[in-house]
Amino acid sequence: MSDLAIIAARNALERAKLTPNDIDAYIVATVMPDYPFPATAALVATALGAVEKAAFDMEIACSGFVYGLGVASSLVRAGVHKRVMIIGAETLSKITDYSDRSTAILFGDGAGAAIIERCEKDCFLGSEFGTDGSRPEVLYLPVGGSRRQIDAAALDERQNYLKMRGSETFKFAVTKMVESSQSVLRQAGVGVEDVRLLIPHQANKRIIDAAAKQLGIAGDRVYINIQDYGNTSAASIPIALSEAYEKKMLAHDDLIVFVAFGGGLSWGAIAWRWDEKH
Asked: For the chain, how long is the longest CA-to-CA vector?
């Protein structure tokens, strides 16, 4: 997985015209680290040539990039760091059961990266993060942790692949995407009509369409690329952001809402004011 993360990081550095040592901290959001430890972020930073920089991973599944953006923004706004890179990277193909038609067509691999930099104008307008750990079985990987290690019996039962209860996930996702998006807009003191672009986690087009409809955001203001990559978990939002930037869909001072949900169960949203230079 780190190979994908390194490519995304290099692309972000090139676009920002920065060197690896210009970044003070590296955050990798993933559920597919190279190893249980050390942190994949440390491997990525070293591969890039960043010398003795802070680096750590975040494991909150598909909500990972939004959570990482919140942490990175907090570090910058508090004056701890000047620049932080957040990388969402996944290789879900390694834990997808291709004999399970309910999940086999959904997931993909990918990576995307963003750099947060201190500036005079605060672009971070509002956030909401939450979890509900009462039902991990709705969306989880049953084995590989300390609860149950991978053994012959687990392999025979195909428990080394991700499991998802589709209908429950759908209902949860739509509800939380709508509620958290509305919350960050209230915090920002703006309305739905002010949103230039909604960039949601790319889990399922029906989920995205249902959430956008309930929010009252027209389709031309919702970025969707799931048809190209599938669900790439923590990588989906930074990939979508990169594409929106390349397509010149964002102008100075545009309001963006990033929103995601995932295993945990987890959810998060951030309202962000786009700044051309930062």
From this structure: 57
